[in-house]
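Q: What structure does this chain adopt?
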Amino acid sequence: MNTVLSGTWRVVLTAAHGVRLEPVELHLRAHVRAQMRPLWSRTVACPPLPGREAVVAVARREIHAGRPLEFHAPCGFGKTTLLRYLASGAVWAPSVYVRVGSAPLDDVLQMVVDRLYWCPEPVKATRAECEAIIRGCRTLVVLDDVPPGSGIPNEAAAALPGCGLVIGSTRPVLTGLGGSRMLHGLPPDAALDLYARSLGRGIGANEVTDVRRLLAALDGRPLHIKQAAALVRSGEFTASRLAEEAAAAGPEALDRLSLRRLDGVKRRALTVLTLFAGALLPAALVSGVGDITFVLQYLDELHRDGLAEHPDDRFGIPVCRKESYRQQLLGQIDYAGAVRGLADWLADPSGPHALEALEAALGLLGFASERAQFEVVVRLIRLVEPVLFVMGRWKEWRDVLGQGVEAARQVGDASAEALFAHQKGTLAYCEDRLEEARDLLQRAEELRSRLGDRVGAELSRTHLGLVRSVQNHGPPPDSVASRDRRGSRTRARVFLAALLTIVGAVAMVAAVQAMSREPVVMVTVTPPVTPPSAELSSPTATPETPQSPETPQTPETPETPRVSSPDEPTVLAAENSPLTLEFVDTVIDTGSPPSTLTLTSTGTAALSVGTAEPEGPALKDFVITDDGCSGTQLRPEQSCRIDVVFRPTETGLREAVLKIPDDAAGVVRTVPLSGLGVRVVEGDGDDVNNGPNADPNADPNADPNDDVRESSEIR
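A:
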């Protein structure tokens, strides 16, 4: 089961019946503050690209000047290699590489955010939130395989001011902004050096003229240069003959010559890469899909022969070469074997290779759709839609579900049609497309009732009820949906403030570490101003000294309470510090040291505080021992404090929330409480050895650090 936080909903993916919606009571900002972790760091010591020094210098100048840049070229000129180098951190950090393909801009931005930050429970950010996160990092965004005619480059440039943007495409797509440059082949000397290294020997004086003529006919394309060297190394061709072939039929003639030489196993390995063109796959996945043992050996040979890419520990072919390869390799495709090979890799949407398997499956899905293989389409969509859901690529998720509904109808699979309709309808509800949501959920409920799926039908019926309630009456005043819509702007600002604070801190650390390496542009990140409502304060801020309303100001720190003028609007607001209370591991039926929560009035009028009390599954395990807030009235800039002790009644993780109502606008303040209850193994530990049940034979000089303690139900 997987979950994604979206607004004030926790969207839960169940294995059998699809997603269900659960209201989220804890504030999203507190969750993000506690869980988000940066993934990026400054990268140094990247080796230069031979023959591309001038191009990299141009890119560096444009990126540091803040101008969008595009490299376009036909297939085989080394565009992807250049873009991956620019995204490695050698030019700017943080840098993110994303292959666009058919993904819409919203999903592209989500992919960039996911490469910048990690969170144990995925959060689906809005497009505006993604843009602000990326801008806060001043990220270099490198977008490869942008389809011709796409508007994504210009939209991204407008949405991400202050960030670097580099585009890669086969034809110009960046219009009216920045520089568009055609990427040419390697210079003659660099091309000759690559040919010699790929050949594995020196070039004789009698060969130089023919080799230079060959390299000129290949336009200096790196992959074709490696192909030519492999063909000459085999002894079947000479440089002179290959130069004639390339001059007569173009550099692509070497593709045909190279493919004809492949034996059965290498041909099968390349067929797998071609089937998933554009995706970079781990060798084990290629082995599983193609049923190939010792596959790494064959993939290395394909890379050496210029037929496959090999960045890091992945293999693939450029998406622009898939058509020419498919015509010669994909006579008979084992769809069933390919789907089986992908199934294990997609079973865990958060697994280490789920992204590569997803890209492979999407490529196969498009291929199967083109050939009307509807049963394969249905099976693939059952595999990929949970991964798209968890990864936050909800625009692609919606498109894939639409394909699934139609494919399921074509093959008469009512169960699959009901599942896909339920998923797409729930997604439509989350995105406020209520008419579409109603029609889809109604269809899902009808199909599931007809099939006798009572649980699934009830789930679809529940979501349909949410849609109809909003359509007929609007959201109830106190409902989660109402708060979600009324507070969408507030949540967005709070979410961004949280992430930008993290971004600012990490950016400062990275900048300090980089000062000794090379100059960088320093930017101060200012979080957006939050609206006048009860909000959670930054956990990174220095907490104020706890002060109750009755405590007078000391002479050393005179302070005059703020009084609002008659023309100034009255604002009730407060903030608490810390955002969460996390207690030390505590033996059951004993008490932890008290943790203190400070509540401060930040508005312009007196704030009335209600009764604070724990709520939740383990509310009895958290005890308020000193309450200076409940029933009090705080003047502007005054504070009060609450002390809480953790007294676990059971072992394992114990959780609750401390609810503190006040008369400020917004939801009731909730502070997460958590602690781990542990049990001491009998006969061990200081308390046991020195207590009334102490072992009389125990060594009084034994080191207590040698004792063994045991805790149960630890996450």
